[in-house]
Amino acid sequence: QVQLVESGGGLVQAGGSLRLSCAASGRTFSAYTMGWFRQAPGKEREYVASINWSRGITYYADSVKGRFTISRDNAKTTIYLQMNSLKPEDTAVYYCTARLTREYDYWGQGTQVTVSS
User: How confident is the model at residue 56 (pLDDT cuts 50, 70, 90)?
Assistant: First the structure.
């Protein structure tokens, strides 16, 4: 059974940094694409970034490009989201997710990120 467990959220001032972690288990993820989404209060969930586990190819939403970095640690089967130059509009619950085909099939429980101005 696939489990995705996020950690690392918290409260930070604008301009600060946070690193989110997502520990993945229950499957061999080498063929998966792993991603981060976020959902702010009253808004729809939106794509943030993703990484192809085997090749390490990364993709980013325009809103976070140049500020966020997604990466993975094969030995720990963990993916990370390094978030720098945080803005109040980055405030959201951040979700780790995984897909083998077109749809993201597996989701973590989410971790809250709050950026104060």
Answer: very high
